[in-house]
Amino acid sequence: MTINREIAEKLTTELISFPSVTGQPDVQRCAEFINGWFRAAGIQSEIVFCEDVPNVVARMGKDGGKRLLLDGHFDVMPAGDMNEWNTDPFNAVEKDGWLYGRGCADMKSGIAAVMLAMKELKESQTEMNGELVFYGIGDEETGSVHGTLDLLADYDRRFDGAIVPEPTDFCIESAQRGLRWIEFHVKGKACHAGRPHVGKNAIEQASRIITALKNIQYDVSNPLFEKALEKPSLSVNRINGGIRNNIVAEDCTFLIDRRLMPGETVENVMNQIRAAAESVIDEGFSFDMHLVNNGWDPFITDRSDPVVQMLVDAYENVTGHAPVIRGKGGCTDASHISNAGIPVVILGPGCADESHTANEKTNIDRIAMTAEIIKNAAASYLS
Questions:
Q1: Sign of torsion, CA 140 315 338 274?
Q2: What pTM did the predictor assign?
Q3: Pick from 359, 363, 361, 355: which is nearest to 77 by CA?
Q4: Residue 233: is it exposed, middle or buried by C-beta count within 10 angstroms (0-12/13-18/19+)?
């Protein structure tokens, strides 16, 4: 390989040194570093502000022919409880071939891999019959409203294919589950807690509805996803109800996290949840429900699509073995890219289980190999 682990470790460490928590000033500082790095490598680059979010757009190649998008984010989640960390989360530390720090997995190692791939293509003067474009996103952790979504809507959406270097455990992911958050409100009747039979306890009724939602049987599944993720899932992760200990709760609100499989629609999901609630709700209670965000849609990119095939071929050429091809359980900007009509595939050096955790880590060799794979794939796709 021409991209070695020392170079990969150095660049990833530099990126991690910026505490680029979404919405904080260091997001722009990190964007300026990436922009300057590309320019120093002789690659055209600029910072594109969408509202107040700084995004980096770098490009190389020439007009005409195919156009390949490399899309990743450099914003990160807060470090959380510092007592849980064994090291400074923004001062990356190497140990036994692993690099530790906030953003190691999600996803500054993936950003580093893309940057190194593009630099190597530039330095090797690889002839490209088309254009390679990098979108570095500054607000992905809050939904990419002023990142990928704005760039595709208002800046440039004509791409023939895309690679997203989110953490995939070094597998190739050609599909992704979707997500909708649904706020569910139960209305009962307040009364004195000493005479509970007079009222209608919304919290108790909400618990019955939640049990009914958890008992929904799903008839859709896809073996492309891991066994625990091959069907839809529903979880209730926030709940609020009542006003005083001695008053029967009149209201209870809870938030549903519903993961969608490819082939499911939001309309069907809402109807399914409504039917489950109506099957158990008692007389005297009412409920309403609504979506609280635009969410992420599920997708599958066909295995035969050129963007998948070229990444599989590059993976085999670099590693000497075939990749595991699967679906992603979480949500990434690949969903927004797919919705724009662009075939997209996901490959990153990080492990998804490490995302947003204390002592987040990434294997350094995988960063270098991911860079080499993306370099080879881009060269082949744009040849």
A1: negative
A2: 0.93
A3: 355
A4: middle
CA distances to 250, 259, 312, 357 from 330, rounded to whole Å, are 35, 9, 21, 15
347: tokens are 């490959």
Q: Are 256 and 209 in contact (CB under 8 A)?
A: no
Contact between 350 and 167 under an 8 Å Cβ cutoff? The reply is: yes
Interacting residues of 228 by C-beta distance below 8 A, sequence separation 6+: 329
CA–CA distance, 332 with 174 (Å, rounded to integer):
12
User: Can you give the pLDDT of all 383 residues of the chain as single tens digits?
Assistant: 688 899 999 999 999 999 999 999 999 999 999 999 999 999 999 999 999 999 999 999 998 889 999 999 999 999 999 999 999 999 999 999 999 999 999 999 999 999 999 999 999 999 999 999 999 999 999 999 999 999 999 888 799 999 999 999 999 999 999 999 999 999 999 999 999 999 999 999 999 999 999 999 999 999 999 888 999 999 999 999 999 999 999 999 999 999 999 999 999 999 999 999 999 999 999 999 999 988 999 999 999 999 999 999 999 999 999 999 999 999 999 999 999 999 999 999 999 999 999 999 999 999 999 999 999 999 999 99
Write the DSSP assignment of 343-359 as a string of letters: -EEE--SS-GGGTT-TT
The residues with which 182 forms a beta bridge, in sequence order, are 256, 291
Evaluate whether 249 touches 188 at the Cβ level (below 8 Å). Answer: yes
In the 8-state DSSP scheme, what is residue 96? T
The residue type of 270 is M
DSSP-derived 3-state class of residue 137: strand
For 346, the token pair is 């996901």
List, in order, residues 6 or more apart from 289 with CB less than 8 Å away. Answer: 182, 183, 184, 185, 270, 273, 274, 277
Between CA 34 and CA 42 the distance in angstroms is: 13
**Nearest to 346, CA basis, from 329, 321, 361:** 329
Q: What is the distance between the alpha carbons of residues 88 and 220, in angstroms, rounded to a whole number?
A: 44
